[in-house]
Amino acid sequence: MRIEGAYEVTIAGPLRKKSQLKAVVRSLGGVTKGTETGTKEISYKWFNSNAKEGTYNPVIGAVQDTLPLAADAVGRYYKCEVTVREDADGAVPRSATSDAAGPIADVEGNPNTDWLHRARYGISHHLLAEFMNRVAAEPGEAWQPGESWDAVINGFDVDAYVQQVVETGAGFVILTTGQNSGYLLSPNATYDRIAGVQPGERASTRDLPMEIAEALAPHGIRLILYSPANPPQQGAQE
Prior knowledge:
This protein is of the alpha+beta class and 238 residues long. The protein has two domains: 2-97, Immunoglobulin-like (Sandwich), CATH 2.60.40.2700; 114-226, no CATH class. It has helices spanning 33-37, 114-119, 132-135, 149-154, 158-168, 189-195, 208-216; strands spanning 2-3, 7-12, 20-27, 40-49, 57-58, 66-68, 77-86, 94-97, 123-125, 172-176, 222-226. The strands form three sheets. It has a four-stranded antiparallel sheet, with no helix packed on it. The protein has a four-stranded antiparallel sheet with strand order 5-4-7-8, with no helix packed on it. Helix 5 packs across helix 7. The chain is elongated, with a radius of gyration of 25 Å.
């Protein structure tokens, strides 16, 4: 359905449980100068009903452009109300509600994670600065005095590592991107800025997780990254 004078709203995504719907807002052109040059704020409200032409009730807490579909979504229809507010003099909010999408179908298992079941088992481990010297099998594997964190990560042999993973028969790998010490396995310009450090000091310039993921992929092995939500306790320079 169109928002008068400016936009069209549709719902995309698989109509089945354990997937997600997405409200798509497309500009139709022919809008005011304020819309073309100013900023826009878009808000979303989702509604569902047991019948396509029935009464639609708000989905509590659903205020994003995407909507995950749980098991209780089966058989239901969904609409999304979109409101566009333009940062321009005299501009008024424009609202419209999409056509109904549904009914939501039932499915066996979970198409998004069935691969994890088929993988049977995997490997989960850390590569953490604060533990490297505690677990080094020999002196040469330890973090050497005067060696930068960037040099440590640059010295990681991805091919040898992947070969060892393949030999285990694991179907996936869970790898920690960083933890309390504030040393990370990949570039992060925002982290560098907040912590007041240079690239390579705490966040490596090499994107090690990406290299590992790309090397595992041809073997049918997936990489899952574990990243703590809390900030590192020692994130800044010591």
